[in-house]
Specification:
Length: 68
């Protein structure tokens, strides 16, 4: 997988996150804060091999708007 940097949280410190990347597989990779809230994790029912991260609304600027 080849990653292309798209944008970093404008309010993060130099070594912080979140960060958004575009891949060469027509997917997105989001670096964010690990979700540890047991109730939230249980509600999502995340299958083995997957995970979730949290990002703030201000990161949406890095996702293109499409009609799809």
């Amino acid at each position: 997988m080849k990653l292309t940097f798209v944008g970093k949280d404008p309010n993060s410190n130099p070594s912080g996150s979140p960060t958004v990347y575009k891949t060469d597989r027509d997917t997105w990779v989001v670096q964010g804060w690990v979700i540890t809230d047991p109730e939230a994790l249980a509600e999502m029912g995340i299958p083995e091999g997957e995970s979730a991260v949290e990002i703030p609304d201000r990161m949406l600027q890095f996702f293109p708007q499409t009609g799809a």
